[in-house]
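Standup, Tuesday
Yesterday: got the pipeline producing structure tokens again.
Today: sanity-check two examples.
Blockers: none.

Example 1:
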Amino acid sequence: MLNIAKIKNGLVIDHIKAGQGLRIFNWLGLDKAGAPVAFIVNAPSRRMGKKDMLKIDETISIDYAVLGLIDRDITVNVIENEILTEKIHMRLPERVENVLVCKNPRCVTQIEKSAPQVFILTDRGAGTYRCEYCDEARGEVDLR
């Protein structure tokens, strides 16, 4: 069994779908982190079969809206003095700005590059967002 030391103060990003951990690692810029980071791939999980995890031995700022867009099953455990103090469950945000990208070539955001990319959640169950300007549907995340 793999043994990763406990973290004193930091975050554990858990329940990441197997294979998606690297995407989150890169989005968070953890390769440039000054603190130790453990990137665990294909860890056994009773609920998911396999999962990825990130253990960050430092408290960092995370945009939970984007994390929820990437994978709404992710949980973030906040650790203080080696004790779990908070467990944050992701939710799809009602509105996101400059996270999703509209692919409609006639959308104002494609013509006016300074226009913000604003999407509104239209179907929470399916995770569907629509562009605020042209109503184009976007189901997946295109991180900018």
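Example 2:
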Amino acid sequence: MKCLAGLPALLLACLAAAPSAGAQEAAAAADTRDLNLRAYTELLRADIRSRKVAIITDVMQFTEAEDAKFWPIYREYEVELAKGNDARMALIQQYVDAYEQMTDQTADKLARAVLDLEARRNALKSTYYDRLQSALSPKTAARFLQVENQILLLLDLQIASSLPIVR
């Protein structure tokens, strides 16, 4: 999807933490990773959010009455989703920090945290599906859920494909 182009390169830059020979190089690499992670976070928040709105507007084709009901609920959803994204970014940072010295205990902790985040995101989507189907219609809410899932899956795939596999 064109609106998400460029994310893999930014993630790879963020997560390409090759071990360095000296302490100064390691500190510089950590600083660069942190800067890249912050830049990626801002990209997620600004670029994707604005593009999501454009995609949703195009696909949903709301009437004026539907538009007035949908967007306030959607904005609340986005605030809650952003909290989950913040937790996800923190988890990615933990993964980056632990990658070179990954232990079984750390891998288990991170994997369980990922599963918890996925469960919370699904619960959030379910809650907001219920709100949208009550405010609009089940068909309209299902259409939004379908579009939202497609966007989130594309983003998830780009993030996952950029993360190195646990060794």
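Quick observation on example 2: Residues 91 and 111 are 10 Å apart (CA to CA). The two ends are 30 Å apart (CA to CA).
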